[in-house]
């Protein structure tokens, strides 16, 4: 009996440490993949010219720097993983087991990777009339928005953009002061519901930091008797030239464009103003 017991053997068990090291390897590779895809997403926005739809140009360097840093981190981490020995992976596993996180490491990396993949395949688009109506179109800049204390009227009238006109009216609000001045602006079309059919608005979004704080401003355009705003599709981009005049809309006097020429144009590469 004793001899039989001593000769019996149990089936071999796979090394527990090896399984743990293999799981850690793939978890670390998931981290590398998440870093790489996030970097690729930011590079795509950078070189694809879509970053201007999301960020003010003054802050674009932050996103561009992040793209480079994340790419370097992904390469460095991959180099660390592939040069590590089994012993070093085992030591990392022991250290990792003592680390407390809100979510399991593989789950948090998977979430980051999923968000990055969505950002990689998503193409940002410029805001249009629907967003403008939802956020409220303004012909003035409110106290919570950047407004100059004094506006230098250095630019000739035809060189002013929509936001230049809005800032000017904030400082000098009397509409008769601009009667007869030349206008040459570009913007997308909005049909305000409470305006007569012979009026439309050319509008632009203004960015102070990022797309989340973008707000629309616009200028009224009074169409001639031979035209109706139905001839100009909502969200289409127009170049409007003409002269400023004073009109009464929404029960108050304000500037409006009396156009001499209206022509369709392509949406600019950077549709926002600052």
Describe this structure in words.
The protein folds into 2 domains: 16-121, no CATH class; 129-273, OB fold (Dihydrolipoamide Acetyltransferase, E2P). Residues 1-8, 14-20, 92-103 and 141-151 have low confidence and may be disordered. The protein has 274 residues and is an alpha+beta fold. The protein has helices at 2-7, 16-47, 60-83, 86-97, 105-121, 129-135, 162-171; strands at 182-190, 199-206, 215-222, 237-249, 252-265, 272-273. Strands 1, 2, 3, 4, 5 and 6 form a 6-stranded mixed beta sheet that branches. The chain is elongated, with a radius of gyration of 30 Å. Strand 2 and strand 3 (215-222) form a beta hairpin. Helix 2 crosses helix 4 (86-97). The chain contains 7 helices and 6 strands; from the N terminus they run αααααααββββββ.
* Cα-based radius of gyration, to the nearest Å: 30 Å
Helices and strands, in order, run as HHHHHHHEEEEEE
- Beta-strand proportion: 15-25%
* Overall average pLDDT: 78
Broad CATH class of the largest domain: Mainly Beta
What structural class results from the helix and strand content?
alpha+beta
User: What is the CATH superfamily classification of the largest domain?
Assistant: Nucleic acid-binding proteins
Poorly predicted runs of 5 or more residues: 1-8, 14-20, 92-103, 141-151
CATH architecture of the largest domain: Beta Barrel
